[in-house]
Amino acid sequence: RRRRVAEARETRRKAASEESWITEEEVREAARRSVEEMADPLLRQVLHLRFGLDRGEPRTPAEVAEALGGKYQGRPEAAFTLIREAQKSIPLVADDPKDLCVIYEDDHLLAVSKPPGLRTVPVHRFIGKSLTNQVLGYIQQSARQRGEENVPRDAPMLLHRLDQTTSGVVLFAKTKAAASYVQRHWHGPKCRKEYIALASQSPNRRQPSAHTGGGACVWIAEPGEAAL
Predict the structure, then answer these.
(1) Under 8 Å CB-to-CB from 109, ≥6 apart: which residues?
(2) CA–CA separation, 73 and 197 (whole Å)
(3) What is residue 96's DSSP assignment?
(4) What's the whole-model pTM score?
(5) 130 burial type by CB count under 10 A (0-12 exposed, 13-18 middle, 19+ buried)
(6) What does the mean pLDDT of the chain come to?
(7) Rounded to an integer, what is the distance from CA 3 to the centroid of its chain?
(8) Do the beta carbons of residue 189 and residue 215 sit within 8 Å?
(9) What is the pLDDT of residues 108-138, one digit of tens each?
């Protein structure tokens, strides 16, 4: 029964986000290309084992530790640390920003609109298909248009996330100072967050329908009513 429920949930998610859906085959092929381009032989071997490029299915950190042997034998936590290091060394894929909706931008912050169905962050750095990858593509495109020689390799700092099926505004910080400032005030009285949901019946729309804490409130929209 659990398997049927999981399969049904996966089918619904795929139907809701067909363009950004990632198959296991896509992950394997993207992983293979990225691993082959890595210069460090140890990190290349670690990801080759982790993604199971030799057997068609991924390995757990414990299995990677056993396959590596030596000082990693019986130490899955050490293998996990090495896996994280290897994954972070992979360049973040830049997606085409043609569909990116920029709401606000200055030298410190970038606010964009995330559509429903699109992930906020990628499943893997090498696979793309997320808002973060589109933002990186936008930042790189802007840098090239300004004639800059050093094109950024990473997207601005993500300040918060939205679920894949949720639409709304997502903030990125271009500087550490901006990120620090926003994070200090994120859960304080200076920051107010509103969420709009759809329901078959609506209570008094002049008052927030629910409080989530941290300065956030939820408003209920009438069925079919557009909401941002």
Answers:
(1) 171, 172, 173, 174, 178, 182
(2) 50
(3) P
(4) 0.72
(5) buried
(6) 84
(7) 26
(8) yes
(9) 999 999 999 899 999 888 888 899 999 999 9
Q: Which residues of 10-25 are buried (b: 16+ CB within 10 A; e: fewer)?
A: eeeeeeebeebebeee
H-helix or E-strand spanning residue 8: helix 2-16
- Measured between its terminal Cα atoms, the distance across the chain in Å is 37
The DSSP H or E segment spanning 3 is helix 2-16
Task: List, in sequence order, every residue forming a beta bridge with 43; answer none if it has no partner.
Answer: none
pLDDT digits (tens, 9 = 90+) for 130-156: 999 999 999 999 999 999 988 888 889
Judged by DSSP in three states, 19 sits in: coil
Contacts of 66 (CB under 8 A, 6+ apart): 73, 74
Cα distances (Å, whole numbers) of residue 195 to 80, 104, 109, 216, 221? 37, 19, 21, 8, 10
Burial of 63 (0-12, 13-18, 19+ CB in 10 A): middle
Tokens representing 24 are 């296991």
CB atoms near residue 171 (< 10 Å)? 19
DSSP state of 160: -
Q: What angle do CA 25, 36, 46 make, to 5 degrees?
A: 85
